[in-house]
TrEMBL record:
GO biological process: DNA repair
Keywords recorded for this protein, A-Z: DNA damage, DNA repair
Domain of life: Eukaryota
Name under which the protein is recorded: HhH-GPD domain-containing protein
Family: Belongs to the alkylbase DNA glycosidase AlkA family.
Domain HhH-GPD: 123-279
GO MF term set: damaged DNA binding
One Pfam family per UniProt: HhH-GPD
Keyword DNA repair assigned: yes
Amino acid sequence: MSLTIITGQLTNPVVAMSLRKTLTALNRPSSPPDSSISAVNLEVTEPSRPSKITFRPRKIRKVSSDDLTITTSPLSSKSTVDISLRHLQISDELLGAVISGHNTPPVFESTTTPFLSLTRSILYQQLATKAAKCIYDRFVSLFPGGESAVLPDSLLSFSAVDLRKIGVSGRKASYLHDLAGKYKSGVLSDDMILEMSDEELIDRLTSVKGIGVWTVHMFMIFSLHRPDVLPVGDLGVRKGVKDLYGLKELPGPLQMEQLCEKWRPYRSVGSWYMWRLIESNKTSKTKLSK
């Protein structure tokens, strides 16, 4: 529709008001089109009787390309993983070869609440896996109900001294208290986190002491099962992209975005295969050196 606007002074106030209302209505953005919605359940592991956290419905986007349906539902759905593998094999021949050469498909099975997952991420930071697991197990043992009892209020009941006794550093104790404090004050909640966009998650979670962008990326992939996360700061993924495309140097964030653009909307799965590619290359080098 074309609209001709005649400029000039309107002396009739009624006409002027009517024109202003008409222009305001025309400038208002239209409502987004309806889209298909799917819901995926995320189970919360408890020692006795597991409960469930339900993911907020996520939009599904469909495109017609060789009968390929692209969905942005969480990766905890096997059908989503299957669709993502087909999409990546079609869109990137080199990545497709890596996928074909790896017999076991990715599985995203985290069953913990967002709060517990973030707590665990903080405790595991900059520690070898074995040492981190030992401290995490001691931490969980502080709570009578185990993992299901690790809640903001109960965590805040333990002082930094209490946490240091089980091997948690003073700095990490302050990180844990800051996270729990933001939950208690209402700045964060599990429901809010499940609803947030990827950009909102990065903005809100990096306001917590000790949580950076890399931690948020890992949280989105392995705890929330978001399908389109590219951890541009992860060394393993960067090395994988370097080897995949035969680069001379490790790619920076901008180059990573450009090279992996073809993986959308399944960059999380593409990243998973970069870790597998690096592991495979390490194994091959070890065999050759023997």
